TrEMBL record:
GO terms for biological process: regulation of DNA-templated transcription. It comes from the Bacteria. It comes from Teichococcus oryzae. Coiled coil: none annotated. This is CopG family transcriptional regulator. Pfam families: RHH_8.
C-alpha cells in the first residue's frame, strides 16, 4: 500500500515555473553579476540564491519536516496503492515536501475513497478531476 519514495534532483522538465517581481535596482545588480560572469544568466543567479537560503535554514527545515511527518522528495500514488488503502479501510493522509503525483488512471471517486487528507509543499500532479474531488481535503 505504501507508495515508493524517491529523492528529487532538479533536471530540465522536472521543475515548476514561478514568477517574481523585483525592483529595478535589484534586477540591475543581477544583470551586472551576470554580465561580469559570476552567473550564466538571471535564472542561474536566482536558483543559487534560493539554494543558499535553503541551506542557511537547513537545520530548521529538517526539524520542521520531522515534526510535521513530511515525506521528502517524490511520492507517487498508483491506482493500486489507492485501491489497497480503500480495501483496508485506512484512508491515506498524504504529507509531502517536494512532488506528490497521483496516477492518471485514478478516478475522482477512488481518490475520495482512499485519501483522507492531502498536504503538499511543492507541487501536486493529478488530473483536474482528482484535484477537484479532493479540494475539500487539500491543506
Amino acid at each position: 500500500m505504501a507508495a515508493k519514495l524517491h529523492e528529487l534532483r532538479p533536471r530540465p522538465g522536472d521543475s515548476e515555473k514561478i514568477t517574481i517581481n523585483l525592483g529595478y535596482v535589484d534586477l540591475g545588480h543581477i544583470d551586472l553579476l551576470v554580465q561580469d560572469g559570476f552567473y550564466a544568466n538571471r535564472t542561474d543567479f536566482i536558483r543559487t540564491a534560493i539554494r543558499n537560503q535553503v541551506e542557511r535554514h537547513a537545520e530548521a527545515a529538517r526539524q520542521s519536516v520531522a515534526r510535521k511527518s513530511l515525506d521528502l522528495g517524490l511520492r507517487h500514488y498508483s491506482r493500486e496503492d489507492l485501491e489497497a488503502a480503500r480495501a483496508a479501510g485506512q484512508p491515506l493522509h498524504i504529507r509531502v515536501l517536494g512532488l506528490a503525483s497521483i496516477a492518471a488512471d485514478v478516478s475522482p471517486e477512488l481518490a475520495r475513497a482512499a485519501i483522507g487528507s492531502l498536504s503538499v509543499l511543492g507541487s501536486l500532479q493529478a488530473s483536474a478531476a482528482v484535484k477537484a474531488a479532493l479540494a475539500d481535503r487539500i491543506r
